[in-house]
Protein 1
Amino acid sequence: MERKVGRINQKGQSNIMKKFFFSVTLLFLFFLLFTSIYPQNNALELFQSGIKQEQQGDLYSALFTYQKVIKLNPYFIDAKIALSRIYYKLKDYKKSEKILKEALTQEPKNIDALNMLGNVEIALNNFKEAEEIFTRAVSIDPTNIESQYGFANLYRLEGRYKEAIEKYQYILKIYPNDARSYIYIGDIYMELGKFTKAGGFYRNAVSLDSHSSFTHLKLAKYYYKMGRLNSTTNKKIADSYLNAGIDEANTTLEIDPENRDALETLGDIYLFKKGFTEALNYYQKLLKLKPDDNLLLYTIGYCYESLGMLDKSAINYYKALTIRRDDEVNRFRLEEIIRKLYKTDLKNKLRKELSDYHYDKGKYFFNKNYLEKAFFQFKRAVQLEPLNPTKRLSFAEVFKIEKYYERYLYELKNIIRDTLDVNTQDLNDRIEILENIISKGFPARWGVSQYLEDSSSPYYVPKSHTKIAILNYFSLKNDKTIHKYLSKTLKEYIEYFLYSYPKIELVQTSDGSQTEITSQDKALKLAQSIKSDFYTTFVVNEDEESIKIEVELRSSINGELIKRFSAYSTGNDRLFNSLFSLSVDINNSIPLHGIIVKIEGDRVLINLGRRHGVKEKMSFLIVRKGDYSPNRNYDVSTISDKSILGSITITKVGELVSEGVYKYKGIFNRVNEYDSVLLNPGKNAKNNKNKNEKKQP
């Protein structure tokens, strides 16, 4: 009996153990199943969150979210495609390409990955590779609309417009109500300049998909473009287009209340209409969605500046500068505002901060022996902080290195006069030495002071200038810029350079740079009204990496094109470098002319020197006073032979004056003081190369 009971207990214990091990195994399997499903669910939830962030335009948050998803599930191909799409939108095309190629090793026939990779190759200008990828995608699924779009967009970017339109029309045969195809055909006709035809396609797109914010926004931008283009010829038609653009943009916002492009388009339209307060309303709403957008802050600053609210303008320009310190346009606008706001507070901290930036740049260029660029950076530093003796001395030092001793002396005297905390003993010693050197020069023997500004003094040297109007001109058809109304800054910035060239006088409109010019007819009329000899217009192409500026120098008599210049620059200081180069080109294209200041025997003193580009042995024609005009006689051969009185050969060259020996023409000497002198093109053929050299201002 006991044995029987024992056997029964052993059997029961065995059953209990089996049940226990079965339960543990079941629990373990359930744990494995749960842990494998949980990441999948968590990854899917995160992925949906990333999609939402991307749709809201929060690209960096979406990027981090998609990265987390892939970490949870390395095989989640939709997340890889989405991550590549974010990099594509952020213009990091190489990273986007790498992720897509990895995804395609996982799923070689994934159409979405192929289409995305095709678009990335287009962005990388790998057009041949893009065409091969779209061909591969179409071979897998001939009806895939995105692959067909890829082909069409590729053809459009390559300028194969006919083939692109045929592709879109092919899509419309399969999907007759595809509004996007109508939009893209409209885009092609816009690029071809067939604006009326483009408008028809945009309107068709809206009628096919009236609930789409995309179609209404495209039509709004079309109306804005047409309003701008018609503003120079028919104000009534222009206003009707602009108002239609406002209506369509507002409809876009009704569909999508936080549509960023719609808010910006409304701001842009009102900005164009000079409705700065209304423009600010939309830009401020947009700023809530894009608080760290430096270009938007710049635009808001520009609106406040246009309204005369300089304090608010400065706040927004400064915020923008803290986000992008390398934004030269924004920096220049801020500096101009600060100089106006703190006109008497010359020791303002912000003035010093802005000045230090240019001073450091100046020191860099000076140490590299780029004296022309150092000159302009030191000059800007002094403009912003004029009481700083160290910066003033650095500015003066450029003249010393270039052996412009009289200008160096002039600057040293101004430092003593204008600044405090300066070693006057040291400066006075320098001044004494310089005065001794200058007193022995030929200008002193002629009894003139080259930098004297008092025209009533007997030592004063009259100045000869060519009058140039740098117009606030922007091309409605050709300008492509990321900074709105960049022409105002271009005008003021290039004037900053040109003010330093002694043969140029800049003439202004009564309102400074406020008069905006959008047509050549208006440009010519304005140039004539302010009595300039020549005027300039700009065409600009600017993106986030580079800038290309084309300048046309035209005669104010008839608008005839004199010269066309172009400057292209990338990287840091691209605006500074481009405008510096263009200012040199403009200066070198202005006729070198002056007057005879004094005559002694067969020697003459003229008011042109080394800073004008004069060199020894140069030959000048003498033209009777009143018979020469820089624009009328840009071509010297147009001067009447009767007006030419003789010639001068330069023997000594000073900073702003030169001495030469003259020969009169004919039997009688008719040469007098204040007769004009101009470079003799025939005698100076050997010096043509020198004319193109960059001269120290």
Protein 2
Amino acid sequence: MTRTRARTALPRTFWRFFLPMLCVMAAAFVTASAVTYVKGLRVFRDIHARTAVALLAGTTSGMEHLHQDIDEFRRTRLQSFQTSLADRATQYRDICAIYRREALAGRMTAAQAREEALRSVALPPAPFARADLLVFEADDAGDWRLLASSLPASHISRSFLSKLDRALDDAGSVPVFEYATSAFSSPDSIRPALASAVRVAQWGWLVVSLAPLDVYKYEVADAQAKAARDYARYLQEISAGSGGELTVFGEQCDVMASTSPDPGSKEYLLDSGPWHARCREIIAAAARQTAPFVPAHGELPGDGAFPQSVFWTVRLPGGNQYAVFSMPSSRLAAQVSGFVDTLTVTGLTAVGVLGLALALLLANLLKPVNSLSNAYRRLKAGDFTVRADENLRGEIGDLCLQFNGMVRSLQELMQTEQLRQVELDEINRTLESQVRLRTEALANKASELEEANRRLQEMDTLKTNFLQNVSHELRTPLTAVLGFAKLIHKDFARHFAALAQGNPALSERGERILRNLSIIISEGERLTRLINDVLDLAKIESGRMDWQDDVFDLSGLLADVAATFQARAQDSGVALKLELPESLPAVRADKDRMTQVLINLLDNSFKFTSKGAVTLFATDAGGEVTVRVTDTGVGIPPEELDKVFDKFHQTMRRDTLRDKPPGTGLGLAICRQIVAHYGGELTAASTPGTGTTMTMTLPAARKSI
């Protein structure tokens, strides 16, 4: 079975790892090919755009050189033509001068000299064989009379002769030139020519040399044709290998030069519909050219004569010629497809070679791994005596050594674990026994605590009922005692004190009796307050308090309570400050109980403040009303600050009058109970020697809809 697994390990690993990797790489190649095609299309388009820019720049430069060469040839040939005509007229003038000197020398008469000079007009020398010579003389009427010519006199325009004569008046002896297109009265009988004129001043003659312009035009046309052929060859050279075609044409779509195999074919003729339409689209694109040497580009649709193409075009200098570089879209797509196919074939070949190499590598690597795998399966089955082959080389051999060390460690650990398991079982039994005993003890304690708690609740209930009953029982005799004490104090002060006037002993005894009666009244009132506080606290805790809730303005209540303490503030020399905002939210509560809370807080502040001020202020805290009573008294010790709200607790603050303040120790406890009943909070903050701040927060009353 081990050999079977060793034989199947390679195919299983191959199918498990290599083929998914191959699929992922194939998908990556497909995606990369698609992306490469799109990106390649842009890249090739950019490459051809740069090629077009370079080619069109070369085309523009070549066209400029072409025009310069043709203009230079035309100018040079015209100058040569003019020089030849001027020399012909000047030579005849020199001949006339020779005959004139012969007549003056007596070797011929003046008439013979004129006759010989006129006869020589019809015999031009060889260099001037294509030039005609005409000799005119002005008569008395100012008309020009032809003396000698190789042309009929009727073809000469008198206005042209007068124009030449005026030009000679300005030039003197220098020959003048004039185009002879208007020199003839019958233009159909003579070809256009160039004329040069001089004067023979001795005889008053006007000598005109004429030469037809046909030869000049033929030479210029040949030069233009040769330059056009050279320009076409130049275009072929610069566009070789570009994959597109260069064409130069005019405003009327007439092709001047092209790298097309047959630039003169019918597709390029003006009367060809396909070329005409494409030409107009190219001209329209050139009109959108943003800069003089920045080509405009576009696309041309396919038709029967031309394939779909992309093009780049510029307007050549001069403004009436255009150069366009075009390329069939199919050729551009084929270039991109060839590029993508090359990349794909190369990538797939690389994947195949990599797969083959990986398969061979796996086959070599998995042979020692199989034996290690078999050893692991035996170890997993519980055979700790198994060992891997330690004679293997490389990392696999090191792995086998580590595996054998791990097996030995596991064997030792198993033995140790068995011993520990025995110990743990014994410990667990001991712990279970202890836990059972502790659980029983805790259950007994819990039962005892529940019983103690029940007894405490009963005792608290008995205490509350006892205090309530005792308070009720004490209130009736205390009211009677307090009433009789006040009545005795009043009657004694009114009747018996007046009788003791004049007797110091009786007066002193009367005053002592009045003081004792005042003490009885004061202590009775304090005892009454204590009984009332005890009854209030008992009612609140038992839930039998009768709350008279109503919505009222807290600002008015604060002002009324502060007013009741104005006299006490003046007597004690402590300032009472009331700081209220313009408006406070209304609250829902028992107004009498809120008054009780405020009086208790202010009473405590005045009780423990001998100088400074007591401040009562309130703020609207957004849905809550905050009331603070701040004094500058002796403060509360930190260790007692958390106990001030406990029942029957009196802080050991010392004032200037007595060590222990009078009170029941129930005021703040009752205040906190009242405030808590309405969902509020009463807190204290104090710094010894600086003062105390009592803060009460109450929820604002909800507005009725």
Protein 3
Amino acid sequence: MPAYAQTPQLPPPLSTNLPHDVYLEVEVNGQRTSMIAQFRELNGHLAAKGKDLDSIGIALDRLGIADTAEVQLDSIAGLRYTYDAARQTVSLEIPDNLRKPYTFNTRAQARTPPATSSRGLLINYDAYAQSSTDAQLAIWSEERYFDPTGVFSNTGIMYLYRNDRRYTRYDTSWSISDPVALDTKQFGDTISSSLAWSRSVRIGGFQWRSNFALRPDLVTFPVPAFAGSAVVPSSVDLYINSVRQYSGNVPSGPFIVNNVPGITGGGQATVITRDALGRTVATSLPLYVDTRLLATGLSSYSFEAGFLRRSYGLDSFDYDPRPAVSGSARYGVNDLLTVEAHTEATSGLYNAGGGALVRLGMAGVVNGSLSASAGRLAGTQASLGYELVEPHLSIDAQTIRAFGNYGDLAARDGTPVPTATDRVTLALPLFASQTFSVSYIGFKFPQAQPSQIGSASYTVNFGNLASLNLSAYKDFKQHDSRGVFLSVSFGLGRNTSVNANVGRQNGQSNYNVNATRPPDYDGGWGWGVQTGDAGAAPYRQAQVQYLGKGGEVTVVGQDINGQGTASLDVTGTVVLMDGSVQPSRRIYDGFALVSTDGVAGIPVLRENRVIGVTDSGGHFLVPDLNSYQHNQVGIDGMRLPADARIDTTSMDLVPQAQSGVLARFGVTRYSAASVILQGPDGKLLPPGAAVHHEESGKDTIVGYDGLTFVEGLQPDNHLVIESGSLHCSVEFAFERPGDASLPIIGPLTCRPTAGKAR
């Protein structure tokens, strides 16, 4: 056949010689993922970009694959796949070592909104009066101003005795906190930082410190993570020392349980997975948690500069004229090692040292430090300690030795460093409700008699009903210093308890029997009675307490060795905020002032529990919120007046530390009424008739019985109605009722108008 008569040869199909994109449904290890991923196909072989493999769940970091790189699936060792072109699916078989583990946090909390603060002033007070020849009266107070930029606080005590009238200032400071940087800056009186082997001093000046309390959800210590694998989607239960701490669900494949909660010290964690058929797999691992360690990469610090405070509590403005500085730092090198350092300096003294805490696997944590001082007080100090906490054993031992004339800021100011400090405690839980412990404490100051005190204690609990404690001690350096004590406590229910103590100390017998019933949190009465004998001084006491929304009052009567006295203690807070003065029980941290824009008698809820009602000015003070945490506060909208409107009835409040938040529930009053309309013939207008209120521009319709609801009423109102061929209008006057009700007006007769109303 001639060449020109031969049948021309067709090119091969595109899919056999050119790569092209395909979009396939992905299955992983036999499980459908409902995921569509992009691949490149050539002759039945697939390739994909790193970002697509990452979305499927392949661990790119283990394979060294970049997000933008295109990788042949056949080149990934251990991965197998089946490509079904007809069904447009790809089934991947991925071993666990190539998959990204599914991670979940057992301590996960909802993200806390940024903390806020309103502007206001509060005065905490504690007034104590006692009957005596001097007519004693002392008033402790704190004046605290707060706004979004920080908190100013001043504390002190006023003595109003018959022959002694004076005011002694305690602390005055301005503090600013930054939740993002997790630090607090304080100007004024403060207490310097310290470590386990250093001492704090009061200082007036400036302090800059890390503050983890600004993030309550932050776990600052190392916590274990547990890995597992589920063949199919399963439920996961986490048990710590046989107590379930977490329950959740995981997809098929590897998973990691982060931030295991529940214990301090040693214990056992058990992870149990269950599939849809009820098959279980349990994995147990030992764990040890010590909250003194810092998590890997986490650091804390504190720096102070100023002048040492002297005669605290006696003199308001006695400061050492020599400037002083102090600083501490800690850093978590890894989960097993935390290092720390401390330094101090003032005129004639320089002190610096370092230390470390090392976790010995499951065998506990050992700590040690070495520091030195130079100048007028030159010497060294060394410390060594060990702690082990187990479910059936607890050991705590610490020793500190000072050599030469070792000194620090406190020693430079007149309080010498102990030359020896020892502490050893051993606790043995015998059974579920019994504990036996022994301890030894020894210390020695220069030119002072040393103390070496040993003690033993046995405690048994009888459920929640009663407990018994037997203890004894002896000072080995003082022949006659010893004692033995027996105490029994009974819980009688309704917050009432009875306690009895009997003992012998330093050759004298003593006993005490008391019964107490403190006031409930919601307020009310409390009481307490006791009688006893402390050696040669018998005594009796009775007290009555009342806790209200505005504070707490305690009245005490005493008879000591035949001499009777009486005392009165009144504590509380006065808050000036939002143009109102609010008495309250004692406020320690954050609080909220609820405002309903003048509407009185509205119930206020805390965590869905009614805690009070707004006063005549529409205010209610919630005195005990947790700063930098979620606090759910709301009002009962069902108790609002009928003509009231509100956007929300609940708020998530996050106050700054020692500050108040104004929770304004914007209540607006509106003018509205139900109007009965009838046509020119006197018959009620039919349902569905269109109604237009000219003054407000709002539209509505007529319901049954000729009734329509009209909002935005003015003193004079005009309604235009359309109903089929009827076009008519109504005009009427309106005056808001004094009882805040929504009145019914009419019936009103609709007058015909020419043409359409609008």
